[in-house]
Amino acid sequence: MAPKSSTFLERYGYDLLLGSIAAFYVIMIPYTKVEESFNVQAMHDILYYRHHLDNYDHLEFPGVVPRTFIGALLVSILASPLILAMKLLHLPKIYGLFAVRMALGCIILSMLRFFRLQVRDKFGNHVEAFLVILTALQFHLLFYCTRPLPNILAFGAVNLAYGHWLKGNFYAALNCLIFATIIFRCDMLLLLGPLGLMLLLTKSISLWKALKRCIGMALLCIGLTIFVDSIMWKRILWPEFEVFWFNSVLNRSSEWGTHPFHWYFTSALPRSLLVAYPLFLELRFIISAVPIFNLSAAIGATRIYNNRKKNFWKLLYFIMLGLLLISVGFTIITFMASLENYPGGHALKDLHQIGRLANNTNEQWVHIDPFSAMNGISRFCEYDFPWRYSKEEGIPLQEFCHRNFTYLINEHPTVDGFKCLFTINGFSRARLQARFPPVLLVKEPKVYIHGNILNKDVMDRNWPGCW
């Protein structure tokens, strides 16, 4: 009999590899951006405020459109034992951010595992291996699988759908996509519709049976999201329907930024897929989702690998190896840039470390401007007394000197009544150069930390200074 350790690695080795990379990204880059703010703040409030809804962040900062709490609830339930242990050990709340992101990563990667196992059963071990290699080398997929974006929460259900599809459980696949569409991302309808139509045209499902099963699932999901989210938002609503109405019916999504049509093919997909982008062209069909692109690429890579000893295929094999190395390089560069892409979070962390006044029981009020809040600061980053925080918006710069803030964290190099204490640099752009390394990451000051000049305790301390 094989040793237990060998059996364990055969069964879970790929999961450990992908999970370790995702965990590394969490540890090295724990902070979150504005796109993740709703679910991050919701997880914090569920775990730390529980039933005290009046303290929840979304009631003060509701955002453009409401979002569902269901994903945040699921992740919070999974992370709650760790949060309880952290409270007993009196650990800072920033460790809670690690916990919820790790919990989300476990959910997403477990669903990706289900998809991968169906790939192995249908296409073989080599395709599975290449699928894992391509996924491991792509920075974006494993980096974002722990980030609580609505499309990442939907991504888990989509992986389940793909797995059931490959397994032949077509009604289950449709129900997974219905769940993702109704609760997390209404634009998943663009995937649900074509898949359902294809299954009908190929007579893989019957129309009457599909209606019976899918309508029931749809009603269940609508009831669930209305029940949960009406309680959390304190009004009757279906969040994703309001998102659909805002974006599609009112056509107001362009107010928040747009990309040209070719952006998906010239920017988004190449950056996400890296080496898989040219390899997936080996097949003649394209489904607009990264796992399926990777599956197509893995099948193409397997074909090249199996024929690598033939003359023409040998050239393709070396080209594929070169592309894999290029993917590693791009992943390293993207990771290094991302390290410097959360200046707000780094600013608050450094202020906590060097700004606490010894033997001082006075409250230290920190004002955080929108730019800093959108670039790394969440409620998980906040400390207890004597620290106090304000994210009040719309304060004119000349008015800060009339407020009682001890510190300011903002994007302005000078503020009347305050002295710049230190700055945090952030990623600005990448520049090519004719020496090693060939790519230089250019940084520049992004966030400034100011101290109130009337506060002698602050002014008497040594600070790194601004330049």
Protein architecture, described:
By secondary structure, the chain is α/β, with parallel strands linked by helices. Helix content is 59%, strand content 9%. It contains 19 helices and five strands. It has a five-stranded mixed beta sheet. A hairpin with a 6-residue loop joins β4 (418-432) and β5. α9 (170-184) runs parallel beside α11. 37% of the residues are buried.
Secondary-structure topology with pairs:
Layout: H1 4-28, H2 37-48, H3 57-60, H4 70-88, H5 94-123, H6 125-137, H7 139-144, H8 150-167, H9 170-184, H10 189-201, H11 207-233, H12 239-249, H13 263-273, H14 276-279, H15 290-306, H16 311-339, H17 343-355, E1 364-368, H18 370-374, E2 387-390, E3 407-410, E4 418-432, E5 439-452, H19 456-459
Parallel strand pairs: 1-2, 1-3
Antiparallel strand pairs: 3-5, 4-5
Helix pairs in contact: 1-5, 1-6, 2-4, 4-5, 5-6, 5-8, 6-15, 8-9, 9-10, 9-11
What is the chain-wise order of helices and strands?
HHHHHHHHHHHHHHHHHEHEEEEH
Shape: globular
Number of E strands? 5
Low-confidence stretches: 261-265, 272-281, 283-288
How does the helix and strand content classify structurally? alpha/beta
Largest sheet: 5 strands, mixed
Strand ordering within the main sheet: 2-1-3-5-4
Report the β-strand fraction as a percent range: 5-15%
- Head-to-tail CA distance between termini: 66 Å
